[in-house]
Amino acid sequence: MANFSKSTVPQFSVDVYQNEFLPEGGRDVSAIVTVTSTGGGTSGQRLLGPGGGGTAGVVIMVDCSGSMDYPSTKMRGAREATAAAVDTLRDGTSFAVVAGTHVAKEVYPGNGGLAVADARTRAEAKESLRRLSAGGGTAIGTWLRLADRLLASADLTIRHGILLTDGRNEHESPEELRAALDACAGRFTCDARGVGTDWEVKEVTGIASALLGTADIVADPSALAADFTAMMEHAMDKGVADVALRLWTPVGVEISFVKQVAPTVEDLTGRRTEAGPRAGDYPTGSWGDESRDYHVSVRVPQAAIGQEMLAARVSLIAPDAAGGDPRPLSQGLVRAVWTDDLAMSTSINPQVAHYTGQAELADVIQQGLDARKSGDHDGATAKLGRAVQLAAASGNADTAKLLSKVVDVVDAATGTVRLKAKVAEADEMTLETRSTKTVRVKR
How far apart are CA 26 and CA 22, in angstroms? Predict the structure, then answer.
């Protein structure tokens, strides 16, 4: 492991966990790459400058469609949550509030740009929230495009959005939303929340996935303020943006997949952008003080017993503040060694095994819920039973608890379950929304 960090950015480290030994004829190499950033959040010097502000920008997008008045607690909760988020803004942070219906409207500051947080602008923004009222439809792509324009109006290092919706995106086509997400991807990150139970899980999680943010359900509007405060605090702790995981492979090596596997499962394989001969960048978004795990799988050429090779080099790359070439922050190496020692070549690295199971857990939950919705009782029972088994084996207690609200667990170790006859809609949506959350491997 090498480290190239400078004092003006968080310090990144890369650790690689793998079994590098392959049997004769073996070609598939897997590794878990743990990336850790320190000094970028509250514990150290930040790119955001004194007090955490200066080059951070946040746009809060609040659903104001007609359904937000049913019940009225949703609109009231949204106002209170947005006010709480505004209060959490650190001095010097640029921000704006957008009201979203079938069109997007600037609520504050309303001049086509961003305000800079201080006591006066926070008070003005909260006063403007009193004018928020429900009415109209839902076209989330227009909200995102306005947020993009507002964030592009200032010279920012960290660009982030917070989006709240309570309903389905019924006033624009799926293609229009996808086009908006494609246009905004890489320009800002965005956390998305669904309030109540009338929204579409795949829409909200798709927004967060495309924009490298988090997604969650807030079934009770009274919990919105606490959730928005936590989201804003997390956004304020980001210290460096637009970090990429760069994968370089030698001639003859094929990339099978690149996935984030902790804290959530996110397949990055299709998001590669070329970065020179045999190198590609995979986006990871913004970083504060945190650690994430990535699963890298490559296929190497066959080689004879006793030979070894570099299978891949993994680097963390960040934009240069002065506009020069992107700079490496840290790197790690993935190796392949061919051996005739059966014990060495058949041993499964515990980190690789753990996250392979966590990725399967996310998949079978989704498959099980889809089967349940389509009336496939046997398929749903089998998939959700496997999910219970995987959650128990990996110690994913949070997911196991969510599963227990959808199925009656007969034997967790064998995955024997019965579908519950009645399931609260909020419980099913919570399981689906949080299905990609993982637990870290015990090292």
Answer: 5
CA atoms of 95 and 86, how far apart (whole Å): 9
Six-digit token string for 297 = 């799988």
| Confidence (pLDDT) at 9 | 54
In degrees and rounded to multiples of 5, residue 243 shows phi and psi of -80, 135
Query: What pLDDT, on the 0 to 100 scale, is given for residue 138?
Result: 97
Tokens of 133: 């009222």
Other beta carbons less than 10 A from residue 172's beta carbon: 17
Give CA–CA dist 212/217, Å, rounded. 17
Regarding pTM above 0.85, the answer is yes
Cis omega (within 30 of 0) for bond into 263: yes
Q: Are 241 and 285 in contact (CB under 8 A)?
A: yes
DSSP-assigned beta bridge partners for residue 237? none
Are 281 and 244 spatial neighbours (Cβ–Cβ below 8 Å)? yes
- Cα–Cα distance between 413 and 410 in angstroms, integer? 9
Tell me the two tokens of residue 153.
């109006």
How far from 56 is each of 24, 155, 173, 207, 228, CA to CA, in Å?
52, 9, 32, 21, 17
Query: From residue 85, how far is each of 33, 77, 219 by CA, in Å?
Result: 34, 12, 19
| Helix (H) and strand (E) counts in the chain | 11, 21
- Which sign, positive or negative, has the C-alpha torsion 373, 390, 245, 338? negative
Contacts of the segment 69-77: beta carbons below 8 A, 24+ positions apart: 69/134, 69/135, 73/221, 73/222, 74/166, 74/195, 74/196, 74/221, 75/132, 75/133, 75/134, 76/221, 77/195, 77/221, 77/222, 77/224, 77/225
Question: What 3-state class would DSSP assign to 141?
Answer: helix
Residue-wise pLDDT tens digits, 244-302: 999 999 999 999 999 999 999 999 999 999 999 999 999 999 999 999 999 999 999 99
Query: How crowded is residue 110: how many other Cβ atoms within 10 Å of its Cβ?
Result: 12
CB contact at 8 A, 433 and 214: no
